[in-house]
Design goal:
single chain; alpha/beta; 7-stranded mixed beta sheet; 4-stranded antiparallel beta sheet; globular; EC 2.6.1.-; Aminotransferase; aminotransferase
Length: about 375
């Protein structure tokens, strides 16, 4: 018998990977499934983006290996995007590294900075991949609580009471997934000060800044943040390019170089045509964000109505691609609640428990469903 590596004992299959098989099986049986569980934008990229990819196919350099760092024009576009939208100055040659999606960056950063036995501060609730990657590299997850009573922000008094001597890295993500909490520059400044005090690498996962958010922010806006921080970003949600797998990590040259040393041993560069499309997307002005948000606003209104129809209390302050809602009193299990809805009403909603123990009692709706489908979901109740 060929045995698997011990590290596989530390992780399970990603929830959505297994659950969507069940959802697809129901759909194959003819059930009228409405999938409100996963944040995969159903809208298309701008036509100019698609045209740029089409044109790139004719370039003589389009089909060969590409630079591990991306073509210079892509890095320049990413730097311009940060300057135009966050007023953050980045050197495109040394302080930005294009990624095949920001999820890839979570693994690269972890491999670049974590040794076995190092500890990692992970938000609860938060993106499950932080935990799985921490386990895969042999580090130890240490969870810090986020609670609605504190607007889903860290409790710094509680953090200071922890033994931080082995903590090497801290994951944050604002706007927050799954709750949609906005965060603030004041919060970012506190986090940077905390990271400096304890010599911790702070990483902000920032793919939702422009969705239903009138005040996009970057951790790198905080003075001195580059000394202790990296920021991940993505074109997946902002530009409806989830399947294209285009992201970036930004920070000081030393930190970026460390990530590149891992990445350059794991792929052979991003496809040229996708890079050209990404360049075009990053040129988008405020009218693009406004047009997308007009659609998401209407969807959010209807989705909140659906949540309230279920007796849930919506977290109204949330931004981003999801609606976070507290279950009615007396419901003991979010997973049983959503399974009942899936099999009786054929609507798939994500249970809050997949994001951590503090997600128990909550469910999450994705705004990746057309208005008429959300209205249909409401009518099923």
């Amino acid at each position: 018998m060929i045995t698997t590596a011990n590290r596989l004992n530390t992780v399970e299959e990603y929830y959505f990977s297994s659950k969507l098989r069940e959802v697809r099986q129901l759909a194959s049986e003819g059930k009228p499934i409405i999938n409100m569980g996963i944040g995969s934008p159903d809208l298309a990229p701008a036509q100019a983006v698609i045209d740029a990819v089409t044109l790139a196919m004719q370039d003589v350099n389009a089909h060969g290996y590409q630079s591990y760092q991306g073509i210079p024009e892509l890095r320049k576009s990413m730097a311009d995007f940060y300057q135009n939208n966050f007023q953050v100055d980045l050197n495109p040659n040394t302080e930005i590294l294009p990624l095949m999606g920001s999820k890839e960056g979570i693994m690269h950063i972890s491999m670049a900075f974590l040794n076995e036995g190092d500890q990692v501060l992970i938000p609860n609730p938060g993106y499950p991949t932080y935990t799985s990657v921490t386990n895969l590299v042999g580090a130890e997850a240490v969870y810090y609580d986020l609670a609605e009573a504190n607007n889903w922000e860290p409790d710094f008094k509680a953090l200071e009471k922890l033994d931080l001597s082995k903590v090497k890295l801290m994951w944050i993500g604002y706007p927050h997934m799954p709750t949609g909490a906005r965060g603030s520059l004041e919060l970012f400044a506190k986090l940077v000060a905390f990271a400096k005090k304890h010599n911790i690498l702070l990483v902000n996962d920032n793919p939702y800044s422009f969705v239903l958010n009138d005040n996009p922010m970057s951790l790198l806006q905080v003075e001195g943040a580059k000394e202790v921080a990296l920021e991940l970003n993505s074109l997946s949600k902002t530009f409806n390019m989830a399947g294209w797998r285009v992201g970036m990590v930004s920070g000081s040259a030393d930190l970026i170089d460390a990530v590149l040393r891992v990445k350059s041993n794991m792929d052979s560069g991003m496809f040229y045509g996708i890079q050209k499309g990404a360049i075009e997307a990053l040129k988008s002005d405020k009218s693009w964000f406004d047009s997308m948000n007009e659609i998401y606003k209407k969807r959010r209104v209807l989705t909140e109505q659906l949540a309230e129809k279920l007796g849930c209390k919506v977290y109204k302050e949330g931004v981003g691609l999801f609606v976070w809602a507290k279950l009615p009193e007396g419901i003991e299990s979010a997973e049983k609640f959503i399974d009942q809805i899936l099999h009786e009403k054929y609507i798939f909603i994500a249970p809050g428990t997949i994001f951590g123990s503090n997600g128990e009692g909550y469910i999450r709706f994705a705004l990746c469903v057309k208005e008429e489908k959300v209205q249909e979901a409401i009518s099923r109740f």
